[in-house]
Amino acid sequence: MTEPEKIRVAVEIYGQTYQMVGTESGSHMRLVATLVDDMMREISSKNRSLDTTKIAVLTAVNTVNDAIKLKDRIKELENELKLLKG
């Protein structure tokens, strides 16, 4: 079986350039980088005393929190769907 082709794209996140490599499209990877950059800048704007590492950790914590909430919501919707199907 052939592995999916890897795509490389240079992105900028919070003033640093990163080489992202993945099987997703370049536009998808740029979107992810933009969302991370936006979130880091929002956190930074609310507390100017945070260093980059703390901003990155808070971004990760917020992102994981959002992912958990979405997974929980998906489970709720799947359960509702099962009930509707009877």
From TrEMBL:
It is found in: Cytoplasm. Homodimer. Interacts with FtsZ. Keywords: Cell cycle, Cell division, Cytoplasm, Septation. The lineage of its organism: Bacteria, Bacillati, Bacillota, Bacilli, Bacillales. Activator of cell division through the inhibition of FtsZ GTPase activity, therefore promoting FtsZ assembly into bundles of protofilaments necessary for the formation of the division Z ring. It is recruited early at mid-cell but it is not essential for cell division. It holds the Pfam family ZapA. This is Cell division protein ZapA. InterPro entries: Bac_CellDiv_Activator, Cell_div_ZapA-like, Cell_div_ZapA-like_sf.
